């Protein structure tokens, strides 16, 4: 391990190289700025990343994408903005499979640049709350560079550190605090959906909470409920989960896997969240193939997975990552947690959505006969269990296409139900005469 400057580290980059910036907290800032200054000396430098939480100097310095090509495994709002102007590309993947991708299908990374806390007495650099697939990259990267910072929390868990013997170079980073994710208050629709889900959560349930207002509204209402001894085995650690923990609702006492521990693979939220997890042994971070693979999720009983979608068709297909051909986010862990929760003893998977959205002056239904052309199916109809809107909740398991269509129509906004029912009959989703009251 050798200490060098950020400029010297950026000088190691050559045309045609694949770099990896990691994800979220891991993405380097000082190195990024130094590399951007070399844009006139380079070409065809490709950078793999995930959930970019700060603007990237290499992209801002190269708006036409002549030098730096950006590939993301899951979009943040910044990645989406870059994609909209042609500066970012998406790698389709179930998030829990990514370590295996690096080991089997992705060529070895030329240079990994990752943020970490300063070295401890044992020679370890803590990788903070973005464990994800970093260990898989470290094992495969030709060169590993650590950018030191004290601005990120020190976390506990499995594979959360990199030893000095695995590192080629260390550079001094800045100590800017970890970026926060705004957590707006839940809307009336969020709360209505949350109230329906709360009735399905029992004492001892093991929670997976996705990103967004609705899942976090569930956490807020759980604080006011009588639910006890909740567990957590999730992909993303959110403010809602931390608030539940601080309220004493989360003990993990009834978990079968990692009993007593709040398990996740990354965190993103407020300073309060980061302060809570810093050196806190109640929280364990693990690689994403540990948290997200269905065969691990199902090892806990009574798993409750709560995730958002943006559109669902009358057969139960959920499109959660695109708006037509415009990419918004990513597959993430939604499909894997839907399967893992269903396979869990007593488990339940909830896909929630507001019944409508605004497109300019027009109100549109999120429940539709057919998905918008170009939309990507994130959770298949075969994997769909509970669907929840502000108008109700329906379990699609065991229902044929006609029964599914009728159940989903009842979850739609009242102003769209008649037209949806007509479309369902006209297109054969509901055969004439299938229901006694068929028109």
Description:
The structure is a single chain. The protein folds into 2 domains: 2-172, Glutaconate Coenzyme A-transferase; 188-426, Glutaconate Coenzyme A-transferase (3-Layer(aba) Sandwich), CATH 3.40.1080. Helices cover 27% and strands 23% of the residues. It is built from 15 helices and 27 strands. The strands form 7 sheets. An 8-stranded parallel β-sheet has the order 1-10-8-6-2-3-4-5. An 8-stranded mixed β-sheet has the order 16-14-12-11-17-22-26-27, sandwiched between helices. Strands 19-18-25 form a 3-stranded mixed β-sheet, with helices on one face. The model has no long low-confidence stretch (mean pLDDT 96).
Give the topology.
Elements: E1 2-3, H1 6-10, E2 18-23, H2 30-36, E3 45-50, H3 57-60, E4 68-72, H4 77-84, E5 88-90, H5 98-104, E6 111-116, E7 124-126, H6 134-140, E8 143-148, E9 161-163, E10 169-172, H7 188-198, E11 206-209, H8 213-224, E12 231-233, E13 236-237, H9 239-246, E14 262-264, E15 266-267, H10 271-277, E16 283-285, H11 288-291, H12 294-297, E17 303-308, E18 311-313, E19 318-319, E20 322-323, E21 326-327, H13 334-343, E22 348-352, E23 356-359, E24 362-365, E25 367-368, E26 386-389, E27 392-395, H14 401-411, H15 414-426
Parallel strand pairs: 1-10, 2-3, 2-6, 3-4, 4-5, 6-8, 8-10, 11-12, 11-17, 12-14, 13-15, 14-16, 17-22, 18-25, 22-26
Antiparallel strand pairs: 7-9, 18-19, 20-21, 23-24, 26-27
Helix pairs in contact: 5-6, 7-8, 8-9, 14-15
């Amino acid at each position: 391990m050798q200490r060098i400057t950020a400029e010297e580290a950026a000088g190691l980059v050559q045309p045609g190289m694949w770099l990896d910036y990691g994800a979220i907290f891991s993405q380097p800032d000082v190195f990024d700025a130094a590399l951007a200054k070399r844009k006139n000396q380079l070409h065809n430098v490709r950078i793999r990343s995930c959930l970019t939480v700060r603007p990237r100097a290499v992209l801002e310095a190269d708006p036409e994408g002549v030098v730096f090509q950006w590939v993301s495994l899951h979009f943040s709002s910044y990645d989406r903005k870059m994609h909209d102007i042609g500066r970012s590309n998406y790698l389709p993947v179930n998030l829990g499979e990514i370590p295996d991708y690096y080991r089997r299908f992705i060529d070895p990374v030329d240079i990994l640049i990752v943020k970490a806390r300063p070295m401890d007495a044992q020679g370890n650099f803590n990788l903070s709350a973005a464990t994800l697939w970093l260990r898989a990259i470290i094992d495969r990267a030709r060169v590993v560079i650590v950018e030191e910072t004290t601005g990120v929390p020190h976390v506990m868990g499995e594979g959360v550190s990199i030893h000095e013997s695995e590192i080629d170079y260390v550079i001094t980073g800045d100590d800017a605090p970890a970026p926060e994710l705004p957590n707006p208050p839940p809307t009336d629709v969020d709360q209505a959906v949350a109230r329906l889900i709360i009735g399905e959560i029992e004492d001892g349930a093991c929670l997976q909470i996705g990103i967004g207002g609705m899942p976090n509204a569930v956490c807020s209402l759980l604080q006011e409920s009588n639910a006890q001894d909740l567990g957590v085995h999730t992909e993303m650690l959110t403010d809602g989960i931390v608030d539940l923990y601080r309220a004493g609702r989360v003990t993990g006492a009834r978990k079968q896997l990692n009993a007593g521990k709040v398990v996740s693979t990354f965190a993103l939220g407020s300073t309060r969240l980061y302060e809570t997890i810093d050196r806190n042994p109640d929280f364990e971070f693990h690689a994403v193939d540990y948290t997200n693979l269905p065969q691990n999720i199902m090892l806990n009983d009574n798993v409750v997975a709560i995730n958002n979608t943006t559109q669902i068709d009358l057969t139960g297909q959920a499109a959660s990552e695109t708006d037509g051909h415009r990419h918004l986010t990513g597959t993430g862990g939604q499909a894997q947690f839907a399967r893992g929760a269903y396979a869990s003893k007593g488990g339940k998977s909830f896909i929630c959505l507001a019944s409508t959205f605004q497109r300019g002056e027009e109100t549109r239904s999120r429940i539709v006969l057919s998905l918008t052309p170009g939309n990507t199916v994130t959770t298949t109809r075969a994997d769909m269990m509970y669907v929840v809107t502000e108008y109700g909740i329906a379990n699609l398991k065991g229902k044929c296409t006609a029964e599914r269509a009728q159940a989903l129509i009842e979850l739609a906004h009242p102003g769209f139900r008649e037209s949806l029912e007509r479309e369902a009959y006209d297109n054969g989703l509901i055969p004439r005469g299938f229901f006694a009251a068929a028109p």
